[in-house]
Amino acid sequence: MRIAVAGGRTEAVFLAEMLLKKNYFIVLINSDTRFCESIAAKFEKARIIMGDPRKLSVLKAAEINGFDIIISLCEEDADNLAICQMGKIMLGIEKNVCIVKNPKNVEIFKSLGVNHVISSAYTLANMLEQVSTVENLVQTLPIEEGNIVLTELTVDYGSPAAQRCVKDIEGFPKNSIISCLIRNSGITVPNGSTVILPGDKLVIVSSREASETAEFALSGKK
Amino acid sequence: MFFRNNDLVIVVGSGRFGSSVANSLSLSGFDVTVIDKDEKSFLRLPPSFGGYEIIGDATDVDILLSAGINKAHMLVASTNSDNVNSLIAQIASRIFSVKKIFARFGENDKLELTDGFNVVPICPFSLSLNEFCLQTGLKNAEAGK
């Protein structure tokens, strides 16, 4: 696989390391002389092109025609779009990936022909949606395609499970287990007679259907 | 002209070209909104300018929406970055279906990017060369490129 990386600094270095390990052929294009010198010394197998990747003449001189992927990591969103489009329209690079600063550009760039648009704010927002109720200090992690849910939850003073034995918790569903109890940074696997105290952090494994009920039984909140 | 007066026109980038276009349109009776990142750029507009001014980054859809791009009949992308002009013209065309779109390009290497969009490119370089050839009767070596 042949991959061109336009712009970027730490991201470009990280990607280059990863891609070279997989034995891909990569071309790095960057306008910073010093940066080019340092990566040229670091990556012997990569081709380094010094020049402004936002210019068609530079992309043409880099001889990346017909490459498999172009990755654009420039600062300005508009430049990244232009680079991806130049790759597709003028250089025959079908697949492209770029980063954007403005999360609203994710959908826009996709509609303008960029295959993968990455925005840290956009990704963060999506993750926060999955982490159901952040303010209740509940974190969930779906595994096995979401059929199993791993939930992390902190017990507070008002919670119905506080000061109770595990076996006495009201309404705790069947397909659910408190797999781990973290107290004063010590970890124990609780049994039925373990008393839950306020401040304890619990890790619960449950089926998708049971996860909300379990959360409610332990925290009193949905 | 191909549009009625009182139609809304958005001009992005209030440089020498953008501000002159905005003023001419305003004098002809169009509703003009000018967007620029830099407040100082609006000083290029004459005191008599009757349109609106919005300070902001026009590559942000929300800024374009606040300028009324949903109702706009024309958009002129005249910032100092070809790539920004290209992006704004494509957003106006693909997402908001603006009828008439002009984009200024300092270099003519990226004209193909707006092919297939209803975007009219304006290239000062090509225009100057054409004018020179016209005045001198020389053959335009760049023609047809």
Provide an overview of this structure.
The complex is a heterodimer of chains A (222) and B (145). Chain A is an alpha/beta fold and 222 residues long. Chain A has helices at 10-21, 33-42, 56-61, 77-90, 105-111, 120-130, 211-219, and strands at residues 2-6, 25-30, 47-50, 69-72, 95-99, 116-118, 138-143, 148-154, 164-165, 176-183, 186-188, 195-196, 201-207. Chain A folds into 2 domains: 2-124, NAD(P)-binding Rossmann-like Domain (Rossmann fold); 131-219, Regulator of K+ conductance, C-terminal domain (Alpha-Beta Plaits). A 6-stranded parallel beta sheet of chain A has the order 3-2-1-4-5-6, with helices on both faces. Chain A has a 5-stranded antiparallel beta sheet with strand order 7-8-13-10-11, covered by helices on one side. In chain A, strands 9-12 form a two-stranded antiparallel sheet. The radius of gyration of chain A is 25 Å and the shape is elongated. By secondary structure, chain B is an alpha/beta fold. Chain B has one domain: Rossmann fold. Helix content of chain B is 30%, strand content 19%. Chain B has helices spanning 16-27, 61-66, 82-94, 124-136, and strands at 8-12, 31-36, 52-55, 74-77, 100-104, 119-122. In chain B, strand 1 (8-12), helix 1 and strand 2 form a beta-alpha-beta unit. The radius of gyration of chain B is 16 Å and the shape is globular. The interface between A and B is medium-sized, with 20 and 21 residues.
